[in-house]
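Aggregate trends can hide what the representation actually does to any particular protein. This step matters because it turns folding into a mapping between discrete strings. For completeness, the protein is quoted in full, as a sequence line and a line of structure tokens:
=====
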Amino acid sequence: MKLGDREVKRVGLGTNRLESTPANRAFLREAVDAGLDHIDTAHLYTNGESERTIGEALAPFPNHLTVATKGGYHEQRRLRNEVEQSLESLRSDSIDLYYLHRVGKTPIEESVGLLDELRREGMIRNIGISDVSIGEIDRAKAVAPIAAVQNEFSLDEQEDGEVVDFCAVEGIAFVPFFPLRGGNEAVNDIARSRGLTPSQVKLAWLLKRSHVIAPIPGTLNASHVRENLDALDVELGDEEFERLSD
């Protein structure tokens, strides 16, 4: 699927616990070798170590790899400084996808306008926004093209279902964080009957929920990355989907 002008598999990797250790750098290289092509991080994750570890392990990034990061969680007016710091940490000249991490007190039009300036300068390629409502998406896309929205969404947290559907209509990727939270008896039943893991069932549910969904489950284990990528081949039946949704 498309993340702006980037094409990625519909299952990526979240890195909010990633720290700079030899084991984690090796993990990232193994994950990419296994077929991972979308890594999500943020300026504040592990006090900046997440971005630095990705840069240390993988830079210069192969052409097929999309690295997304975020900034402006606490102070949106420092976005330019945070983008510059992220570029340095990632050891890159340009960021494939950059999210406004939170709207905050600064009007979203102002923050997205600044990101659009940075896009025109070549520092970032695509703009995303995180933890937003439909109204905020509308306001943001009136200022600049929005490639992706990142909100929480899972079996356990479906409050933003209308946001997912809005993104589908608008052609905006929806990248759910904490995609593996929750579950019900149906998850374990379907996993047992299909020879799958519960995580694969939860991911398959998300992938069937909307064609614009691209989950980013977090892990520090390469075998879990392979397991998550294998969920791309799982096709849930309509009855299974409804059981899980209930």
Observations:
- The radius of gyration is 17 Å.
- Strands lie at 2-3, 6-7, 13-14, 38-40, 66-71, 97-100, 127-130, 148-150, 173-174.
